[in-house]
Amino acid sequence: MAGGKETPRQKMIGIMYLVLMAMLALNVSNTVLDAFKTVRDGLEQGNKNMTGRLDFIMNLFKNYYDNAPKKAEVNYTKAKKAQEIGTNLVKEIETIKQQLIKQTGGLVENGDLKSRDDLGVSYKEFVEEKKGDALQKKIEEAGKQLGALINESPKSIGLELEWPKINPDSKKKQTWSEYNFGEGKPLTSTITLLSKFQNDAKNAEAYVISKLYQETTGGGIVDSYKAVAVAKSNYVLAGQTYQADVFLTASIGSIPIQVSVNGSSLASENGVAQYKTTTTKEGIYKWTGTVSFKDPESGVVKTFTTDPIEYQVAKPSAVVSPDKMNVFYMGVDNPVSVSAPGIPKEKLKVNVTGGTIIGVNGNYIVKVSGGKEATVTVSAEIEKGKNTILGASTFRIKRVPDPVPTFAGRVSGRVSLAQAKSITQLEAELKDFDFNLKFRVTRFTVIFSKYRQDPLIFQSNDGSFTSDMKRIIGTLAPGDQIIFQNITVKGEDNTTRDLDNVVSVSMN
């Protein structure tokens, strides 16, 4: 059916179809009819896989558009139009298939056609009643519309109809309908051919959408921005300096920013501004930071605001300061330092509700297994025989955050072929997390996307690369993509987690 940029798989399907048709000319045997069902099943499964891949690419495209609408609007609109054209053509062909199947008695128990060897219905429906001419027109129109979206011809996107204009046997002219649905063509070959037309339509749609996406993004994953404030401590003593870092996180790296806190501007360096204020009076204080930057893509100045941040200034007393922020994490050792001005550390007694604590002389380890909060209470024997509570501090209990899966140390972007071929497993690591907790990947799905080929999908049920995966990696070429999804990991804290992250890298 299609000329132009056919994938090896498409060429193979075409050759198989021609071979089957040649065999049919000799004898319509059950073996040949069975072979048509096998080819048809493969085509229909391929169509389902391609639909999933297209949905994935369109989700990436939408994410990019949401963050950079000015840059992506034109091509994203074209991509949605390409998806509409391809989907409509596939649906129209599917309607024709189902009408034929219903008209000829439906399907048998194994899913094959009940009247698969019917030699007359195809010619009657497509040639005599001109349904083939109508289908030809729809395919040709879809090819023109899809090609126009990227200024290419129907042939170059693989959706141009080609057939021998002269019948080699009769030496007479033949139409596209006569060539594909002429006399003597069994019903099973027609249904298989219609599935092939659907496959060609999905491939053309994928080619157009992928080219628009590459043209817009360069193949990268959209950046996201967020204003972040990290305080050194939310509990300080009068006379101490309260300090917090205010910065903009972005996957594209450092961007010149303008920062202010409560309306006062701060100096910034390398994308980070530091807010300092002297604490002289007890009480609860709040502040809000804003971060502004000029978007390098649109030229528009964007502003982000932190959530209100609260800190308390109190008189000197027992001090409980977490060594790693004011959170206890489940399943790990949480180090805590405890001190009280004027009281020797060995005299302090430390207890915790909502967990367990061990340690001496001001250095302790807290372990928690659940709940929302844990309270550390410090007391000492100020007077002989009298135990006095010096203070208490409440900590939030959180689960250790999910690790980030990476391939060759990357979540997205480009990886050299040599590096990709040396990788033997998918990694999972905690990014910017102070605790030394290891995670191991135990399950994942990998999609290999080669240029102009249907995606290859494999499943690992133990986290390791199978021999098939290693073989495919060894055949990758520049521009091919590897996508990991449905990733499951197990941590040293005995938790098993299904990650939402997707790892998508392109070969360089």
Question: Main attributes?
Answer:
6-stranded mixed beta sheet, 508 residues, Immunoglobulin-like, 33% helix, 32% strand, 4 domains, elongated, 26 strands, 7-stranded mixed beta sheet, alpha+beta
In summary, what is this structure?
Helix 1 (8-26) packs antiparallel against helix 2 (30-67), helix 2 packs parallel to helix 7 (187-217) and helix 3 (69-103) runs antiparallel to helix 5 (131-149). The protein folds into four domains: 8-217; 223-315, Sandwich (Immunoglobulin-like), CATH 2.60.40.1930; 317-399, Sandwich (Immunoglobulin-like); 404-507, no CATH class.
Structure description:
This protein folds into 4 domains: 210 residues; 93 residues, Macroglobulin (MG2) domain (Immunoglobulin-like); 83 residues, Sandwich (Immunoglobulin-like); 104 residues, no CATH class. The protein is of the alpha+beta class. The strands form 6 sheets. The chain has a 7-stranded mixed beta sheet with strand order 14-17-18-12-13-16-15, with no helix packed on it. Strands 20, 22, 23, 24, 25 and 26 form a 6-stranded mixed beta sheet that branches.
